[in-house]
Each structure stands twice: as C-alpha cells, then as structure tokens.
Amino acid sequence: FPLFWFNMPAILKGWMDRVLVQGFAYDLSKAYDGGLLQDKLSLFSFTTGGSQEMYSNESISGNIRYVLWPMQHGIMHFCGVKVLEPHICYAPEHASEEKRKEMLTAWTQRLKTLWKEEPIDCSPEWYFK
Asked: What residue stretch is flagged as signal peptide (predicted)?
C-alpha cells in the first residue's frame, strides 16, 4: 500500500476495522502475545512519497518505526499476530527506472525466503530505541 498521511489508506483501515473484530481477531483478556491470531504472520509492504532519509531519527518525519508503531504493534501485535520486518520502497515516484526495477527484484527475492524470516520484537523498546 502507499503510505498515506503517515498511515495506511482509509480503504485498508476500513477493511481492518471490519475484519479484525472482537471475538475473532482479539479479546480484551487475550491480547498481544496471547492474542487470538497468534498463529498468523503479517508483513507490511508499502511505498512512501519521501526518501529514506526523510524517515530517520534526525529528520522532521522521525524514524519510520514511529510511523509503524500503531499499525504493527497497535493492530497486528494486539491481535497476537507475529510481525515481520516491513518491506519499504522509498519514493518510487522519484526513483529512476533502474532503481524501481531494483525495488521489484528485492521484493521478488524476499518473497522467496519469507517463510524463513523471524518476526521482529514488537516491544516499545524495539520501536523507539
């Protein structure tokens, strides 16, 4: 998905609101590592309008992990889902044709080994270190 105003597009958020409902995706007594979807994996693959430098600790936008906290931790991890490292294509609109091809090749390669990846640590310490 395209990162849109530091979040997922409304249509994707609406889908999550309708599908990830109490009793199916979460229960207030069973959340995070004990959540109802703990046998599932998630991977956010998205594009940004800004460059990678625009999503660093030193930038005005802050680290991309800060942007991902509500989506990966607040939605996926809350439901018990294990979260894989995101796949981010920074500013493809402003990249050369060669760079965009490299982005697609990297995505293709990642998909080949996806099931061997270890989930990230969804603790606040990991996101905000």
From this structure: none
Overall fold of domain 10-128: Rossmann fold (3.40.50)
At 26, give phi and psi (nearest 5°): -155, 160
Q: Given the structure tokens 């607040």, which residue do they identify? A: 74
Strand, coil or helix: 27: strand
pLDDT in tens, 56-74: 999 999 999 999 999 999 9
CB under 8 Å to 46, separation ≥6 — which residues? 1, 2, 3, 8, 86, 87, 88, 89
Alpha helices in the chain (DSSP H): 10-19, 64-68, 97-113, 124-127
Q: Which of 5, 7, 1, 2 has its CA nearest to residue 72?
A: 7
Query: In degrees rounded to 5, what are phi and psi of residue 7?
Result: -155, 180
Query: How many beta carbons lie within 10 A of that of residue 80, not counting itself?
Result: 20
* Contact of 106 with 63, CB cutoff 8 Å: no
Q: What distance in Å separates the CA atoms of residue 13 and residue 18, rounded to the nearest whole number?
A: 9
Q: Residue 8's pLDDT band (boundaries 50, 70, 90)?
A: very high
